[in-house]
Input
Amino acid sequence: MNRKGLDVSEFQGVIDWDAVKNSGYEFAMIRAGYGSGTLDKQFNRNAKECNRIGLPFGVYWFCYALSPELARQEAEACLNAISPYRLDFPICYDIEQPTINYARENGINVTRQLATEFVESFCNRIEEAGYFAMFYSNRNFLDRYFDSELSKRYALWYAYYSSCFDGTNCGIWQFSDRGRIPGIRGNVDLDISFVDYPSIICNAGLNHLNGCTSTPPKYQFYTIRSGDTLSEIAERFGTTVPILQQLNGISNPNVIYAGNTIRIPL
Output
């Protein structure tokens, strides 16, 4: 079930969220802040408005970390920012070229290993706090800066500006930065969610939504065969390892047993 959405920050100004929802948009990814604790100037208003009108949303935090320890501190700042709000979508860590440039200006060369550690440090802290973690990337950064296993461990929000999807295994596809939406002045990023995150998060008891009500997700069932790995199953069915873990109570993705039946989201 695909959902159409958008992602915003203070650069979109004061948004008329009623107009956005009435235009058929089904979720938003909102910038909560960046660095060690700087809040986006519109975050609290955007979060309150989405909660008020019942528009599901998640957040992203822009990385200016210089070490894995600072990435974890950024996660703490993000957790503090989101604590008053209901989130039905993931918390995402956003590493882009300004991250690399900032580190270089401070004498740090961001290697593939270091960028991967940034994501792991941030996302692990988010998961420790009981939230669904995600990271953001484009094809260039996936190839240059991230370990190939990272998108199997954490959900991926993938930036690829095209009318045709390239088949990359991801949960959310950011397909344009030129969207025009009622209620927002100027261009805005547009997204498609391939995953029913509200149902998955709710039913897994994540994002502090224990006891929430949600439409039960639809599943297909798969019997594990000898030699299967969870990452291969996820790729085969167009989902992610974290989602399969959460749906099936798998604590260690490297330990699954032939003959067991697991649920796969439709």
